[in-house]
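Comment on this:
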Amino acid sequence: MSVERSIDQLLDQARADVDSGWLPACQIAVARHGELTAFETYGDATNDTRFLAFSCTKPIVASAVWLLIGDGLLDVSLPVEHYVPEFAANGKDRVTVEQVMLHTGGFPSARMRPTDGADPARRLDAISGWTLEWEPGSRFEYHAESGHWVLAELIERLTGADFRDVIADRVCAALGLPRLLGLPIDQQLDIAPLTTVGAAAGTSPPEMAV
């Protein structure tokens, strides 16, 4: 199947999901070989509408970490506590930076509210209090609410700047993108409201938020 046909099918499915009422809106962008080949928005939104990215922020945060690796400031084979001594509490001294990045760190159920993660003192307090659930590096399990906050702490320790500013300067600006994290309230007016769709939680299919 050609790339063009695959993209057409993707766009057709997105349009159908919106037309059926299953999704209130959908925005799709596809880039290939450095060129934007498709950018379409369906439903109650426009191409200028911004959507909540949720866990898509994780690779954005990780990309700043990759830059620090390239700068020679970060060795992923070292324990996190080498850079953030407070992280070592509760037996986490053997967790490496690489294991955090690969979601094999051993604390997948650890939680961090976004408002706490955005505050350096509360973020460090939460990180210090986390405990291990299994031996670091022994298995993979998605660290949904924890791993990227450790990376945020590493970014701030190694640069001396707010991790969101580092990402804006070194990742977003370099790619010609607007600021993606830490937007002031007055710059959030064009973000689409969160809408819950699908079956109720605990039923099949699972609830989805878009």
